[in-house]
Design goal:
Elements lengths: L1 E10 L2 E11 L7 E3 L9 H4 L33 E2 L7 E5 L8 E6 L4 E5 L5 E6 L8 E6 L5 E5 L3 E5 L5 E6 L2 E7 L5 E9 L9 E10 L5 E6 H6 L8 E2 L10 E3 L3 E6 L16 E5 L4 E5 L6 E5 L8 E5 L5 E5 L6 E6 L4 E6 L11 E4 L5 E5 L4 E5 L5 E6 L8 E2 L2 E7 L12
Length: about 425
């Protein structure tokens, strides 16, 4: 069927709307499913269980998975926003009795640096490294020993020691995210350009991949997320663009994976979905999160279309639920989903909260939730009732009043960070 889509054109700071028709093969009753234990694909329709976020129990309007401009390669992320409250800096709210104690790790947009701050906003440690050429840090992960892994967008991943000395580099078209498994292996999101006439006869396709590195940055394995999707019962979610015309040099992004997480097996007693080595991924342009079997590399669970829009950072909680930053198109929200019943058991949204890109969530030990609003550069800790317990404004603000983005902030227990311990 043909859907008329609203198209967002992003170029510098120019935003323009246009209408465009694109074939989108989807059935609104096939929006959430766990495949049968025997792996049969023929039961996908019958096993599909629609789930909704609205209180009335009705499915939300289907958000088209893709548009003509969405599939063009690597449209630039939206620029920083001018903040009417640009004078605000650092910690703005801190309820010491209700906040989860800890330290906070983050990186600031435009800086090849990462910071560890205390709950008052004071810097405890800083890492910095200028990657050769025109390259910027996209995401950084802090390990307990004080080393950090940095995704340098479209260039690779680097590992720095606590003194910011380079330990190793793995060059690749890395993007968005990585995950360090309990055995030390690193699961990195990468891309490759491929030709596939079935998808499009003229333009090349951006093929998202998961590249597995050993702890020393040497590649162990790699597989294509696009091929996993096309071999599953969920290939109908891919937009049909074969008959559309694009600029000759356009590279088409059909999936746009933005997160990977690897299960450690500690929750397998709840469900076989949580087997050690299984992977949770987010596919932004499909409005879907999925679990991939680590052994067979088949999609065994998927949820989101008709319920999410352009989401980021799904994370598995200790109770077996999945916490998701749902960006939305008019308002963002945080949802906690029971993946076994497909019931949304908690959500948070407030006012005109809208992060058009990025966004991350972390469930804290005391039950509060840390929400990073990437686009605005604010991070907020809220309790189950939505009360703001802690709030931080990125102190990096330009002379024009633009507050720089924060891709993700992570609250950590300082007792687990061995590099912070004084030498005995």
């Amino acid at each position: 069927m043909k859907l008329r889509l609203g198209v967002l054109l992003i170029g510098g700071v120019v935003l323009a709307a246009a209408a465009f028709a694109v074939s989108f093969r989807v059935h609104s009753d096939r929006v959430a499913v766990r495949l049968p234990e025997d792996g049969g694909r023929e039961d996908v329709d019958q096993a599909a269980i629609p789930a909704a976020l609205d209180s009335g129990g009705k499915r939300t309007e289907m958000v088209p998975a893709i548009s003509r401009l969405n599939v063009l390669k690597s449209l630039p992320y939206l620029p920083t926003l001018r903040d009417a409250r640009s004078q605000l800096r650092g910690v703005l709210v801190f309820d010491k009795e209700k906040a989860q104690p800890g330290v906070n790790f983050y990186k600031s947009y435009k800086r090849s640096a990462a910071y560890l701050i205390d709950m008052e906003g004071d810097v405890l440690h800083r890492w910095a490294y200028e990657y050769p050429g025109d390259a910027s840090w996209h995401h950084a992960e802090l390990l307990n020993d004080g080393t950090i892994l940095v995704v340098v967008r479209n260039h690779g991943v680097i590992k720095l020691d606590p003194s910011s000395e380079l330990l190793w580099t793995y060059e690749s078209t890395a993007h968005h995210d990585l995950w360090v498994a309990d055995d030390g292996d690193i699961y990195l999101l990468t891309r490759a350009l491929v030709e596939d006439p079935e998808i499009h006869p003229a333009n090349r396709i951006l093929d998202d991949r998961i590249t597995i590195l050993d702890p020393h940055g040497r590649m162990r394995d790699e597989f294509s997320i696009l091929e996993v999707l096309r071999a599953s019962g969920f290939d109908f979610l891919l937009a049909s663009v074969a008959e559309e015309e694009f600029p000759p040099d356009a590279e088409l992004d059909l999936v746009h994976t933005n997160h990977v997480e690897v299960f450690d097996g500690s929750l397998v007693h709840l469900s076989s979905l949580f087997e050690r080595g299984n992977m949770l991924i987010s596919m932004k342009l499909l409005n879907a999160v999925a679990i991939i079997d680590g052994s067979t590399r088949r999609i065994i669970w998927l949820w989101g279309p008709n319920n999410l829009a352009l989401q980021h950072h799904p994370t598995l909680l200790e109770n077996g639920n999945i916490l998701i930053f749902d960006n939305g198109t008019t308002r963002s929200q945080i949802v906690e989903l029971d993946p076994l019943t497909l019931e949304v058991v908690w959500r948070y949204h407030v006012g005109k909260f809208l992060s058009r890109w990025g966004g991350s969530v972390q469930r804290l030990a005391n039950g509060n939730t840390l929400v990073t609003d990437t686009e605005t550069g604010y991070v907020t800790e809220v309790d189950r009732d939505g009360e703001i317990i802690w709030r931080f404004a990125n102190p990096d603000v330009s002379e024009d009043g633009e507050r720089w983005n924060i891709w993700r902030m992570t609250r950590l227990d300082p007792s687990t960070l061995t590099f912070l311990r004084p030498a005995s």
